[in-house]
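Researcher: Can you fold this with calcium ion in place?
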Amino acid sequence: MDTPCKLNSYCLSNICTHLDDFPGKAQLYIKNGYFYGLDRWTQTDTYIKVYSVSKLSGFKYIGRTRTIHDDDRPDFDETFTTEISSKEGSFILEIFDLDYNSPDDLISRVEINFKDCLKLDVCTKNFGSSRLRYNIIWTPQI
Ligand SMILES: [Ca+2]
């Protein structure tokens, strides 16, 4: 006979497992951003490197957006997907301004947690005078 599991727990291989500990898939959607006055000569030439952090997978590079040149309000409209074993995992975004005559400038390193964006539509992350609009969805693989 099945033993009922507590709230938000489900039977996985005969063990009551909290939903947050199920293996899962995370999808990060980067919609757009606002990065003003960060390039001396033109508007900002932005690209974003995406990493995930989780208890089981550690720190992992996932990929990067394309570079959007000379635009303080870049529209990325790009999606990144990764396996994250715990809902407590997060994404780390490194936002760069591309430069041709010097090393690219790191505009900011931003952490995005699942609990910061629980709604289904686009969320906003403000940092300094910059802004990033995104969404993250985590789906348990049951
Ligand atoms: Ca630049």
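Model: Folded with calcium ion in place. Residues 39, 45, 97-99 surround calcium ion (CB under 6 Å).
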